Protein: Transcriptional regulator, LacI family
Organism: Aliicoccus persicus
Amino acid sequence: MVTIKDIARKAGVAPSTVSRVIQDHKGISTATKEKIRLIMDEMDYRPNVSARNLVLNSSHTIAMILKSEAHDAYENPFNNAVYNGVVEACREDGYSIISTTKNTEREILEEVKSLIRLRQVDGFIVMFSKTGNKVTEYLTSVGLPFVVVGKDVNQNNDAIYIDNDNITAAYQLTQLLIDKGMRDIRVINDDEGFTVAKDRMKGFKDALRDNELDSDECIIQVGSELEEIRDTLNEAFNSKQPEGIITFDGFLHAKVLAALYELQIRVPDDMLTATFNDSPLTQFASPPQTTVDIHSADIGREAGRALIGLIQEPNKLKCNITLPTQVIERQSTRKE
Amino acid sequence: MVTIKDIARKAGVAPSTVSRVIQDHKGISTATKEKIRLIMDEMDYRPNVSARNLVLNSSHTIAMILKSEAHDAYENPFNNAVYNGVVEACREDGYSIISTTKNTEREILEEVKSLIRLRQVDGFIVMFSKTGNKVTEYLTSVGLPFVVVGKDVNQNNDAIYIDNDNITAAYQLTQLLIDKGMRDIRVINDDEGFTVAKDRMKGFKDALRDNELDSDECIIQVGSELEEIRDTLNEAFNSKQPEGIITFDGFLHAKVLAALYELQIRVPDDMLTATFNDSPLTQFASPPQTTVDIHSADIGREAGRALIGLIQEPNKLKCNITLPTQVIERQSTRKE
DNA sequence: TTGAAAGCGATACCAC
DNA sequence: GTGGTATCGCTTTCAA
């Protein structure tokens, strides 16, 4: 294996000089820089990550923290897509990723603390946004860089927040259904706690209000089990079957569709359906679903880049990032 | 940060002794072992990974190599599930993972070579099995440990192979359809090259033969685009519409279902459908699909464990691992 | 603008 | 059984 000393010897300079060239240090003549770069290329030199990490006391590793049932987390295409985006961003700069899931905030906090000591993580991507988030509070207090995928609830200037404009997205999706002549539209959701759900709810209600539709009693809260969902829907539809439904997450939506199938409700003939977070689960559903593409992989890529930027330059200005959304209409809202 | 020297000082021993205790070295008295372990606990000592990697010239990192379009690879639930299994196995031993996808074997080979130098990967998980696999040949030649997810095509004793019994699984799935009275069953597949497809094909044909059914002309080869699939199926069904179809991969199957929907072929009323690789895509399809659960996450876990075992003990006997499969019947094959 | 040398934290060889 | 110490590859002062 070729080391920094080999390069130095061949170039007739000291290892420290080579090290400076690697870092494009100002104060090294262009001549030597070029000479040494050439030799590094020739010898196909790659710096040893462990050695560098050791002396810099960093791990070149970031952690991605999810909050949910482990099983669900890894099956939900949204998380996978974001993860892949993060992977991409990390590869560009040679970072590694640790990804963990816990169910409660307490457990997450433990994990975060242990991660900080145990593996020397350089920063965190927190995959959820909530008011009174203990995890972000803790990270702020210890001063470790982190970015949050979600909304900046209380204008936290210690971190970068990556989000879509979920209010507008939900407004547009709802408007699409209203434009189809739907008057009775309901929302299906499984966890009210997250900011993303609140935003989507707001967009939904705003759209109803602007179209002078009533927004009372149009929220259906469900669990995560298929049978449970089916029964809840069945009961909710008992008095009056809505003309259209919007689910706040694509993964949940797949279960809703399976439930509708069991209830013998046909899409789009009996009911229009639409959801958020486009993925194969919605693209290749039967029928393919109208969704809001929130560009999950891009969220991940931006989150990764932002975090790495923060790690390398902790004092840089922390500006939040809002990614565009796009309503994709498919057959689930196309009644002949 | 507490280091090995701090422990040594507090215990009144040399750093080397502490190091030996960490490795549970035989030749250290139980008394000192216990004493030092206590102190390590008290001081909440964690070995520095970078330092250890540096001196051991290892990276504590394994690579997972996929062969397909990047986009597809990360959307296919099978790959994600296997990956999660690998993650779990790696976490147990503190290993990190690099995952990459390339389209051609040439590109993969380049990536592998570069990975070996660039990041000092300790071993590989090769996510495909083929006859004449250049990647496994190369890895064998350089002597780096690797495991293959797939079938041991030519009794390669230099690596561990993790696989299901795909022949039997396909046989059982086919038999299930035959038991439903289906006589005209077709297979849909997108890539014949992989061993897994060959095995499933054999199981399928064996089942037909044992039931005295004709197996000619029952293979439908499709591409990966939805429109393409729809057109191919439409044409294939033109002369005679089969009574049942089996797709060799669950991700492809989702597209097939979407195509059937467009062609206005109803499942299970007009046609029974079944596939491999159970996932949310098949569980929550409309209708939920009969599938073979190949326990993808377990494949990943076993692959990870096997690889780590190989890394830590390169000369240990390399025995292949066969995981069980399980046919799960759902509504797609239940005609009222 | 460059060089010499100390040191990051852990391991393993050679002594005793 | 245990201790002393060179070593891994790189960065970074301090000097020149």
User: Anything to note?
Assistant: Residues 1, 3-5, 15-16, 18-20, 22-23, 47-48, 50-56 of chain B lie near DNA strand C (CB under 10 Å from a C1'). Chain B has a mean pLDDT of 92. Residues 100 and 192 of chain B are 22 Å apart (CA to CA).
